[in-house]
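Sequence in, structure out. First:
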Amino acid sequence: MPILATMHSSFLRRLAALLCLALGAAPAFASEAPPPPDTATPAALASRIDALIDAPRFAGADWGIEVVSLDTGRTLYAHRVDRLLEPASTAKLFTAALVLEKLGAGGHTTTRLLGHGPIVRGRLRGSLVLYGMGDPTLGTGDSADWADRLATQLAARGIRRIDGDLVADDTYFEGPPIGAGWEVGDLLGAFAVPATALVVQENAAWLTITPGRTAGDAADVVLDPPIAIPDLSSRLLTAAAGSAPDINLYRAPGGDTLYAFGSVPAGDAPTRYHLAMTDPARVAGEQLREALERHGITLRGRVRVLHWPQEDSAYLAQAVELGAVESPAFGEILERGLKRSQNLYLQNLLQLAGVQARTLAEADGTAPVGFLGTGAWGLRALDALLAQIGIAPTQARLTEGSGLSRQNLVTASAMVRLLQYVAARPYAATLHDDLPVAGVDGSLVARMRGTPAEGDVHAKTGSMTGVSALAGYVTSAGGEHLAFAILLNHDVPPEGAPPPSRTLDAIAELLATYRGKP
């Protein structure tokens, strides 16, 4: 029997935390503890960190922690630094280093509009191709009007009719759109959307559930955009006011039907869920079709999609570019991805690095025999970079670029070695500034406020069930520049215990108050 992708209480709690972050709400676990006392020696620092991680509530958990001075190279603290642990979203640091090293912060990709056929008296006598090349930001921010921009470019060429189909093509990335090791139970949520070459609105949709007027009425269930999941089947009913909500969402892996069932109390405010689209390319194609219509361009054919492993090389070789929308710079995409811990952005950036790696290998004759997907090419390039840095395969194993996979394993030592390497590269300031800042922005906006770490700690967060992580940079009270990695695995908090992020933050605060001299 297939494993079912359901949205029950544990998943809803995870999704609610993501929604709080996306909407700017401060999570309940914002740091409220007073700042730790100053520490003046490595021994005093170690003693205080040991006291935190040796607390009885962590008796069954595994820690990997390393703190290294970027000024002297000395290790200030080490605890099981060679223990392979799941990094969660701190794995994004590896992808970020690869992107900055190979693609460059100033690079771009493009979403192209291609014509396949002659243009005669304002008629394209063939198909129009919307060709995605991996821009994960299409339909957001400055590119929210992407479809109208492409339609405007087409109209400027005098084209008023397309005799063929509109083909939404996402075959630029080869291989499955799901990262290796992503759990099937996650694939319904917006944090695990398919990482496709043709992206729109971050490949996610909003589902809004509103109770009816009285008990027994059907609840109102609305999906935006409506075609994000092709088939919506709802058996959600309105329950008596004051009763407990019982909302259940289910979509079979690979299926196009979203089932909603259970009940929602009368009088409750609407409930919103951020969900993954099933076929982003089709949504993008339909949005472009609507834009063509707004600009007076008639499409005689239909919207159809082309996905890997379908073949596109023959018609692409004969197509002519009729319009294009350029992505933001890779450095800007990286900043958005790291600040928000946006999985799609980092997975697409890994695949863009994979496209580059494959192109270079084919050009110099070093490409291996056999098929490698675009993501696998990106990981191959990452492995080469890690070897160059001096990180052995036994110290870091990454199977995708976002940190969503539980197959990812790294050591605290490998994480800190990566941070040391990046700190010595020309793009060091870019990564430092792209990381969330304690108490200021991104996934750290509500953490470490009112402590010496506020505004000082620049670090990537990581969180999965049983996993918490924090890795990045801090300048100590003594003026020493530090790189650190804190990995916690196999954590099962006792009932009523504060979240593990409190302890990770307390360690970071100790580093900020450290007064030892370099």
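Second:
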Amino acid sequence: MSTEVPGKFDHKNYLASLTRRPGVYRMLDAKGEVLYVGKARNLKNRVSSYFRASGLASKTMAMVEKIAAIEVTVTSSDTEALLLEQNLIKELRPGYNIQLRDDKSYPYILLTEGDKYPRLAFYRGSRKRAGRFFGPYPSAHATRETLQVLQKVFRIRQCEDSYFKNRSRPCLQYQIKRCTAPCVDLISPQAYQQDVHYSTLFLQGKSDLLTQELTKNMESAAEAEEFERAAVIRDQIVDLRRIQEQQYVANQGNDADILAAALEQPYVCVHVIYVRAGRIIGSKGFYPRFKLADSGEEVLSAFISQNYLGDGKSATIPAEIIVSGKLEDAESLQAALCYVAGRKVKLAQRVRGHRAKWLELARTNAAQSLQAHVSDKHNIKNRFIKLQDYLKLDYQPTRIECFDISHTGGEGTVASCVVFDDNGAVKADYRRFNIKDIAPGDDYAAMEQVLDRRYTRLSKNEGKIPDILLIDGGKGQLRQAKSVLEKFSLPEICLLGIAKGISRRAGQETLYTDTLNGYREISIPAESPALHLLQQIRDEAHRFAITGHRQRRAKARKQSALEEIPGLGPKRRRELLKHFGGQLQIRKASEAEIAKVAGISKKLAENIYAYLHNN
């Protein structure tokens, strides 16, 4: 059902025929863009509430003024309406709905299957691959911290299979007692599987059972006079008890997420404490955008819907979700959580004992995190104002784009573009560029290529034009940037270069800007907030570039150069490697020697030789 009325929306006629059944409503503006998506147990009552004569918040009234049409979809139940609402929010991303910026998949710990010596690894992505998954964990830090504990106590290998299979002697991890060197058979498969079993019990939260098994095995080893083995198990028990002392353990074996919200409009913080197997394994603060929020309970309802409901979210739903306050739609939320998870999920609002302590901790963290977040936002705005003064701009800059180049000896060159506005980093606008077809190590050509690719789109009105273009480099890089801006007729952008000083220390950078009389050096005191802003943006661009470069370099090194040669399939590659013994020997061989290999024609031998020697 929908209606569109020129000018102001005629809500009276529309509401007269609106159904009272449950469903989802979408509010549209004059351009047909969705302003807000909501759900209702009674569509007529809920939509009518937006058009009452009094009692509306100013931000809600501002949205209502923009409404040109309302569309509804009737559903058979509240749960179905809730699930449909979340699917539409994620698809349409309306401006007045809660927006969670961090939509990455949660990290897990993967235990590989089918290997003689299984591996424990950090994993993020689809869980369709073979293996056992433990988690999800709240952050990469919490995941890696758990892996470090396992590496120290049980010494299960965590190295890549390609590294593991090519060892001829133990690596450093064995020397520092973080691995038992299964790569060179210094531990039997049976003993290694025992350590895998212990690690599995630890990851499942069965700490008491694990300690009992270890104690029993230690006593058995001592009775058999295997004192060295008994000492190793004793040390494992001591390490486990120390870890348990550092954690507040209660309600052993249960998983729970504890949620609390704090508001200081226009800023919102939802703090989540993650409890797995009765152990607090970490916490995380979320700062969603929610223009219509009036209370913490309203924020939590929207957060639970978007964070836990939807495709691929079932694994992230714990057995219990504990929230502060009383949620109006708690019943329908719990029904939807159970439906998505395919099991019983409890949504608790009134708790006692240790769970009440967890909830109070979440409230405290939410308030403190929001205070720090608001303070940081204000500091960033002040830094932009100070920068305007030093650059002598007749307007206040609100958007800065920074570019950096990263490579190792010309290999795997990657350029980064990071974006900051007066609220901080705009990570949705970050971009990486793989640089191609330039001389290795030519930073000027790399800078020209990335700027050309970036501003080709901006010249077509695709994206936002920055107020300041910050280049990690000196006058040479600025010349490249200026030529690109002139090419696309974008001279109004302020050009700024930040070059490291001779000592390469923070605070001793040299700043250049483009003027009518050439490139002018700018002096900003080391203690100035404006310089701190530029340093922060430059460091973020460097981090983003070097991360992309390392990923590209690692990917290139995993792939054999032979795989890129046209006409050279797997069978012929095997024959080449069998004949010469390795890629280094193939590179040293002549065309005639390569042609002697079975299945390699003279023409293919010429192509192989030419490719390997960059001819």
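Remark: The first helix runs from residue 11 to 16.
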